[in-house]
UniProtKB/TrEMBL annotation:
Organism field: Flavobacterium jumunjinense
UniProt-listed Enzyme Commission number(s): 1.8.1.4
The keyword Magnesium is assigned to this record: no
Cofactor or coenzyme needed: FAD
Catalytic activity: N(6)-[(R)-dihydrolipoyl]-L-lysyl-[protein] + NAD(+) = N(6)-[(R)-lipoyl]-L-lysyl-[protein] + NADH + H(+)
Domain Pyridine nucleotide-disulphide oxidoreductase dimerisation residues, every copy: 347-456
Keyword line: Disulfide bond, FAD, Flavoprotein, NAD, Oxidoreductase, Redox-active center
Co-factor: note: Binds 1 FAD per subunit.
Record protein name field: Dihydrolipoyl dehydrogenase
Additional observations: The active site is a redox-active disulfide bond.
Similarity comment: family membership: Belongs to the class-I pyridine nucleotide-disulfide oxidoreductase family.
Domain FAD/NAD(P)-binding, first and last residues per copy: 4-328
InterPro entries: Class-I_Pyr_Nuc-Dis_Oxidored, FAD/NAD-bd_sf, FAD/NAD-binding_dom, FAD/NAD-linked_Rdtase_dimer_sf, Lipoamide_DH, Pyr_nuc-diS_OxRdtase, Pyr_nucl-diS_OxRdtase_dimer, Pyr_OxRdtase_I_AS
Origin superkingdom: Bacteria
Gene that this sequence comes from: lpdA
Length: 467
């Protein structure tokens, strides 16, 4: 029987990063993945393919602004969806190949098959051809991720009533895509097809889209997306989803009991994701799950069994690739006897629409609810030279700082390149910077990052320079 210091089940950003760090720290490491392509949800059917399609559709949308820039395009410009999706797949294949390279480079042994516990120290790997082998390990990390969830009355046929996985490889641009759930995944994929020419309607149970983020970001994103043509039905509860041939009818009821019936040719169900432990046989090892199906862990990501850890989407907290990665590193370092730490308050959240939406720390709603006295400073991108030069003037940066100490408590932004700009806010908050600290740092001109400095100036003595 092969024997290891650590075996990781699942090769998503949590699992493969944990494997690399364990190997770097001198552990004999193996990783088990049931699919032939490494990288998990993120690389195969999540972050990377969705960003590839967002990039392609963004290029297409940009064409509409070429004339403003004095660029004349003659002849037809058409979308070749098949080619766009093939390009996306090439990006995925290359990235997954990169993970395989990293496993080989770090001498991590890769087992292809379904990993299931035999005991707290042995895992059976069942391969596609039905054959199996049992491997043994001192420590085991569960990194089995998540799968799309649905509503009990919805029949997902994966053809017309689809999840994000199918939305990444549609055979045609929908005429009318009805999206159930206005969270990050629904809105990002909605914008892809909106740009490609689909009518897109979003039905959301809460009173606003991207409900987990600061309300000011939801408001601005809704405004911009409405301008682009997206339709919203917020505070609407979906009652039924019926398919007849190529027509999908979604019925939803608002808070006054009025029913709206939306007829589309595709409906994307993006109501969240559920932790995935099917086939893991966690019971055989004595690993406890929570009522919500997550693997139960303590602050060190240790399960109810002391040599078994769990990370990423399968445990509590934000379902984000970079959160899973941090947890992978943390567990590897704990196993090596180190004392790592993650500040979960400083895990940024990003929506990769254009304009991009990004945030870190506390929202205004959270600060109000916890009774923290705070001050707020905002700066609009339209007042920024670089934004005007590029023609990307939608959005703003908002900084929330402690009313007494001036420590930055939250940074919320929507606008061009915010997915990258948020890193400045994370660094500042990691070092417990005050808004005044940020306002005193030189930011290159002209850049989008100047909006952060100006928002910090607005938060301290209301002294922005350019509004
Ligand atoms: P996963 O990536 O889900 O990987 C788990 C792996 O375990 C899978 O490969 C699975 O096959 C394998 N596995 C499961 N059970 C077994 C078993 N018993 N034996 C062997 N293998 C097993 N996050 C971001 O941060 N940024 C984004 O832009 C972003 N975009 C997204 C877009 C979409 C459309 C979706 C669906 C998700 C997106 N996410 C994004 C979320 C991100 O993909 C997840 O948070 C991340 O993949 C979680 O990583 P993980 O390692 O916990 O699990």
């Amino acid at each position: 029987m092969s024997s290891f210091d650590v075996v990781i089940i699942g090769s998503g950003p949590g699992g493969y990063v944990a494997a690399i760090r364990c190997a770097q720290l001198g552990m004999k490491t193996a990783i088990i993945e049931k699919y032939s392509s490494l990288g998990g949800t993120c690389l195969n059917v999540g972050c990377i393919p969705s960003k590839a399609l967002l990039a392609s559709s963004h290029h297409y949308q940009e064409l509409q602004h070429f004339a403003d820039h004095g660029i004349e395009v003659s002849g037809d410009v058409k979308v070749n969806l098949e080619k766009m999706i093939a390009r996306k797949q090439a990006v995925v294949d290359q990235t997954s190949g990169g993970v395989k390279y990293l496993m080989d480079k770090n001498k991590v042994e890769v087992f292809e098959g379904i990993g299931s516990f035999e005991s707290a120290t042995t895992v059976k790997v069942t391969k596609n051809d039905g054959s199996s082998e049992v491997i043994e390990s001192k420590n085991i990390i569960i990194a089995t991720g998540s799968k799309p969830s649905s509503l009990p009355f919805i029949k997902l046929d994966k053809e017309r009533v689809i999840t994000s996985t199918e939305a990444l490889k549609l055979p045609e641009v929908p005429k009318h895509l009805v999206i159930i759930g206005g969270g990050v995944i629904g809105i990002e994929l909605g914008q892809v097809y909106l740009r490609l020419g689909a009518k897109v309607s979003v039905v959301e149970y809460m009173d606003r889209i991207i409900p987990g983020m600061d309300a000011s970001l939801s408001k601005e994103l809704t405004k911009v997306l409405k301008k682009q043509g997206m339709k919203f039905y917020t505070s609407h509860k979906v009652k039924s989803v019926e398919r007849a041939g190529d027509v999908v009818t979604v019925e939803a009821e608002n808070t006054k009991g009025e029913v709206v019936s939306l007829e589309g040719d595709y409906s994307l169900v993006s109501v969240g994701r559920r932790p995935y432990t099917d086939g893991l046989n966690a019971d055989n090892a004595g690993v406890k799950l929570t009522d919500r199906g997550q693997v139960e862990v303590n602050n060190h990501l240790q399960t109810s069994v002391s040599n078994i850890y769990a990370i990423g989407d399968v445990v509590r907290g934000a379902m984000l690739a970079h959160k899973a990665e941090e947890e992978g590193v943390l567990v590897a370092e704990i196993l090596a006897g180190q004392k790592p730490h993650i500040d979960y308050n400083l895990i940024p959240g990003v929506v990769y629409t254009w304009p991009e939406v990004a945030a870190v720390g506390q929202t205004e709603e959270q600060l109000k609810e916890s009774g923290v006295a705070y001050k707020s400073g905002s700066f609009p991108f339209k007042a920024l030279g670089r934004a005007r030069a590029g023609g990307d003037t939608d959005g703003f940066v908002k900084i929330l700082a402690d009313a007494k100490t001036d420590e930055v408590l939250g940074v919320h932004m929507i606008g061009a390149r915010c997915a990258d700009l948020i890193a400045e806010a994370v660094v500042a908050m990691e070092f417990r910077a005050s808004a005044e600290d940020i306002s005193r740092m030189s930011h290159a001109h002209p850049t989008f990052a100047e909006a952060i400095k100006e928002a910090a100036m607005a938060a301290t003595d209301n002294r922005p320079l350019h509004v």
